[in-house]
Amino acid sequence: MKNAAFLTALAGALTFAAAPPVSAETFDAVAAVDAQYDRTARVARQLWEWSEVGYQETRSSALLQTELAANGFTVTEGVAEIPTAFIAEYGSGGPVIAILGEFDALPGISQSDAPTRETVAGRHAGHACGHNLFGAGSLTAAIAIKEWLEATGTPGRIRFYGTPAEEGGSGKVYMTRAGLFDDADFAIHWHADDENSAAANTSLANRSAKFRFHGRSAHAAGAPEQGRSALDGVEAMNMMANMMREHTTMDARIHYVITEGGTAPNVIPDFAEVFYYVRHSDPGEVEAMWERLEAAAEGAAMGTGTRVEWEIIHGNNPLLVNQALAKMMDAKLRQVGGVEYTAQERAWAEQLATSLGDAAKPLDMAEQIQPYETSLGYGSTDVGDVSWATPTVGVRTATWVPGTSAHSWQSAAASGTTIGYKGAQVAAKAMTLAAIELFSDPDLRQKARAEFEAARGENYEYRSLLGDRDPPLDFRK
Q1: So where are the chain's domains?
Q2: How far is the C-alpha of 283 from the C-alpha of 297, rounded, in Å?
Q3: Fewest Cβ atoms nearer than 10 Å: which of 40, 103, 289, 443?
Q4: Which helix (H) or strand (E) holds 272?
Q5: Rounded-to-integer distance, Cα 129 and Cα 168, Å
Q6: What residue stretches are annotated with the Peptidase M20 dimerisation domain (predicted)?
Q7: Are 166 and 105 in contact (CB under 8 A)?
Q8: Residues 301-312 pLDDT 10s
């Protein structure tokens, strides 16, 4: 009895001694992100070192999951039938705010963190789109937001979505199709870039497929009449697709790469493959062009005496811009400010800038915030499908030397340096402030939701551009 009385008194004393929740105004969100710089840099560098391609990001996904679990998040792995996709959540009640985190690298780009072209032996992929920074920066934001929820006692949930295979694999589309965003009230994302901007830029819808031609092998000199070249089928298709470009609208983009075309000139290849992308601002136009592309493939096969089949690999809807959220994010980014270089970082950036030629921009642009505007972007992203499931907002920060293009050795190099880590921290701060604003401002939530519903229109039904196929888990193997 004495022990029971003592424990009761102790519990009461501990309850009395517990620190009361702090106010939203008292919590310093920027400082909370600054305090995590070492984690941001460590995780970003590790993801950069691994450079795992789409759906093969086993270690990268596990690292992010481990960091989140260690910080109090409940992790659910292998969602949407994708082994490297996961969800990590903290909090209770609502609203539910999603933070997107990517971590896949690009195949075919190998680069050290030097400011000159320098491939790395044994490495056949690289983070030339900065997804190592994306994953690390989003991780930092999610933890900082969790700390704010915990410190202030605010009801709501922060949910980190580990989204694999953005580069051609449409990981988020499969997650959207599986309904994983249906109960999320808002989604926040960011991306590496050569400038800081929260402009309301939409994107192109796209679809891709691998067209596989089958022919008949023979000696190219001794028995050419017996062969049917699968490569001829690919080349005939490419010729017709290039003719098609002349008869498409201005927003159309068609590009391809021959992934297999034979191994010896004197052997008529019995197999060849070409990988196509088709893009347009209107998903309906993508589908219309796609019908023509499929017809070109079938015609090429008929004309060359070969057989063709194709596998749709990915398809993304365009980003649905939400002006209420975008303007709020722009204000938060301006509150945070841009990226300031140390003398050492400036010297590194100056050396890399010499490789950019006419594309180079003043280095001071890394410190500036670009004007807010609404425009069409000509890239594509699987964030587009998320934006049709829940109101979505994004931000871009100067993780690369101004003037650097994505998917280049220069972007891969900067993504493995403190320049990239600082840009990820800027993004984490802006996302954290934006999430706090959404948790705190019911009027903003209502306005953003009303805009979202109006933009989708009545009787909206989600439709994916990749159909009902399973995730292409081996498309990068």
Answers
A1: 21-202+318-456, 205-316
A2: 21
A3: 443
A4: strand 271-280
A5: 12
A6: 208-298
A7: no
A8: 999 999 999 999
The whole-angstrom separation of Cα 216 and Cα 297 is: 18
CATH match for 205-316 among 3.90.1170.40, 3.30.70.360, 3.40.109.10, 3.40.50.720: 3.30.70.360
How many residues in total does the chain contain?
477
- The secondary structure of residue 402, as a DSSP letter, is T
User: What's the rounded Cα separation, in Å, for the pair 367 and 339?
Assistant: 5
CATH number of 21-202+318-456: 3.40.630.10
Q: Which of 392, 7, 18 is nearest to 203 (CA)?
A: 392
| Element (DSSP H or E) covering residue 431 | helix 418-440
Residue carrying the six token digits 């190099």: 413
426 with 198: CB under 8 angstroms? no
Burial of 443 (0-12, 13-18, 19+ CB in 10 A): exposed
User: Reduced to 3 DSSP states, what percent helix, strand and coil does the chain have, rounded to the nearest 5?
Assistant: 45, 20, 35
Q: Which of 9-23, 129-143, 235-249, 300-314 has the lowest mean pLDDT?
A: 9-23
Average pLDDT, rounded, for the chain = 94
> What tens digit of pLDDT does each residue of 363-402 get?
999 999 999 998 888 888 999 999 999 999 999 999 999 9
